[in-house]
Amino acid sequence: MTSLLDLFAVPPSLLALGEPTHGESAFLQIRNEVFLSLAEHGYRSIALESDRAAGLIADDFVQGSAAVPLDRALAEGFSHGFGAAPANRDLLLRMREWNTGRPAAERLTFHGFDAPLELEGAPSPRRHLVRVCEFLDLDRSAIDDLVGDEARWSDPAAIWEPGRSIGGSADAQRLRVIADDLLTELYLQAPRRPEGWQAAFVHAMSAVAVLRYHAAAAAPLTQEARFARLAGVRDALMAENLLAIRSMEAHRGPTVVFAHNTHLQRQLSTMTMAGTDLSWAGAGAIVSSLLGDRYAVIVGSLGASPALGIEAPALSTYEGRLQQDTGLPRYVRASDIEPAERRTHDYRYFPLDDATVAHADAVLHIPTGIDAATLAERILALPGVEQVVASQENGSPEGAWGDRFFHVGADRRQPFATIVEHDVPGFDEASQLDRPDVFRLNLDLGRAEFERLFGFPPKDFEEHRHEFDFARLDTVVPHPGYALYGFASIVMPGPHLLPEVDQLLAVAHARAVDRHERAVRRAAGQQE
Questions:
Q1: pTM higher than 0.90 for the full model?
Q2: How many other CB atoms are there within 10 angstroms of residue 355's CB atom?
Q3: Radius of gyration in angstroms for the set of CA atoms belonging to the chain, rounded to a whole number
Q4: Are 488 and 322 in contact (CB under 8 A)?
C-alpha cells in the first residue's frame, strides 16, 4: 500500500487519518501500521478520539512506567470503551517497544484529544479539580461542597431539558471561577513544580471543559439547536486539545490524529433533525482554519464490514467505484476521485459525499473488513478444499464449536489450515482468543517454510517462545501449541495483510495437495 507521505510534497505537522464508523477493526489495524511507519520518518506522537486526561494513564504505560500495567492502561487509559479494541492493545505495546532504550527526543507519545464527556451527558468536574488541588497542596472541601451529589451532574435528561441541567446553577458558575483560578495558580507554581505540572494542567483543562459543556446544556434552546450547539462545543473542546498537543509536540516532530471522519473533516458537519438543517464546525474544520496547510486529512472509506453487518456498496457510489480495481486497501488522492452517488446513510456508516471528498487531501478506502467467515471463503476458493466446522452434531467438544478446519481430499486427520475463535484452557490461551470478535488463522507450513520465516527450525521453538507476543494482531508467529509441527498463526489478519496471507496459504495448500496425491498413489498401488 502506498505510503501516506507519498501523497504530500511536505509532511504535514498534524496528519489526520479518519474512519467512517467505529467498530471496524481494519481501520485501527492499518492505523497502527501507518503510525509506526511514520515514526521512522520523524512523527513522534499520536492523538486518538479518547479522553485526554485518561490518555495520561495510557501514555505512562507507553513511556515504560512499572506502576501502570497493560490491563490498567487499557481499562483506564481510554474512554468510550475503546480500550477493549484489540488493535489499541497492540498500539500501546508497539509504542512502548519502540521507546525502549531511545532518547526522549525520539520517544513516541500517546494522547487523547477528546473531552471527558459523551455527547449525551457529562460527569461532574470533581475528580479533575481534586487532582489539581492535590498537586498544588490546596484544600478541596469547597469543591466537594459545590459539586455535591454526582447524580445532579450525570442526569441524562439534562442534555435534552435545559431546566434540568446544573450548568446554569450558582454552584456550577462558582466552580468555573475556581477552575479558572486553579489554572492561574498552576502557572504561578510552574517554576517550583515542573514535575507533574503538565498532567495537572490537563486535568485543570478537563475540568474547564466539563463545566463549559454543562453550561452549554443549560442554554434555553430548542432540542434541535441544542444538539447542534452541544456537538459544536464538544468539537471545539477537541480542537483546543489538538492545538495544545501540537504546541507540546512541535519541538519533537509531527503528530498523527485518528478519529471519526466527522471530527476531522475540513467542511462543516451537517445533520437534518426534525426537518431542520443543522450545522456546526467540527474539530478538523476549526484546526484547519488555524493551521492551514500544516493540517492534512485523509478520510476513511469502507466497502463492506461483516463485523457491522454492512453489505458491499452499489457500483455507482463513491465506495463502489473505489473498490472496482482492487480488493486491497489503498490511498487515492481526492483530486483523482470522480463525482459519484452518495451511499445510503444508516448511522452505522457515514458515507463519502461530494463535500467530504472535495475538502479532503486523500481517501483511504478499505474494500472489506475481515472476519472468520470472510477468511474461510478465501480458503475455500483454493482447488479441492473442503471445510469442516466443529459442532455438537459432529461430536466436537463444546469449546471448539464454530472453529473451522480445512482439508484437501478425504483424509480429515491433518488440516492444512484452521480458523479458531476460542482459547483452550490450560493448553492454548496465549493468543487471547476469548476477546470479543477475535479469531486466529493457523497454517501448516512445514519445516522449511517455518525456518525461513522465523530463522530457527520447529524443534527449537521452545527456546524462542519468549520472543513472541502471540496475542498481537497482523503478525505471523509460530503457533503457540503446534509450532513443533511446523505450524504458524496470525491473529485477526487485516485486509492489508491479505497478500502475505495468500502466499502462506499457497504453501500450506500445496503441502496438503502433495499429501493427498501421495495418499492416492499409495492407495492405487495397494489395489494393484
A1: yes
A2: 14
A3: 26
A4: no
